[in-house]
């Protein structure tokens, strides 16, 4: 039986969060398992308190929402697609296919420009492709 705990912590700027993967220790008698103990930090999800999150970040597609999904993936035992013995093809290592990737999907930046030809401002935001 496991448990996922969510909390905030102070982390370096630019880091959304981190999580501990499931981890267990086993006691044996011969080749028979006699007890299993879960690591106390296993499944903990920590969101960075130093980031400037706003309400829109926690809506589907927002940076906070995607960070939370990514970290829950780690808490469940998922790795990044470029780590470990079972890696995905480089062509599939993208947020288009998995929330565990750090590679932004192509054609996912929206630039909004306001003003006129003499004076204008622009903002960009990341769009997450439909899965």
UniProtKB/TrEMBL annotation:
Q: Supply the alphabetized keyword list.
A: Hydrolase, Metal-binding, Metalloprotease, Protease, Zinc
Determine the domain of life of the protein's source: Bacteria
GO terms, molecular function: metallopeptidase activity
Protein name per Swiss-Prot or TrEMBL: Matrixin family metalloprotease
Check the record and name the SUPFAM superfamilies matching this protein: Metalloproteases ('zincins'), catalytic domain (SSF55486)
Domain named Peptidase M10 metallopeptidase: which ranges?
39-82
State whether keyword Disulfide bond applies.
Answer: no
Instruction: Quote the InterPro entries the UniProt record gives.
Output: MetalloPept_cat_dom_sf, Pept_M10_metallopeptidase
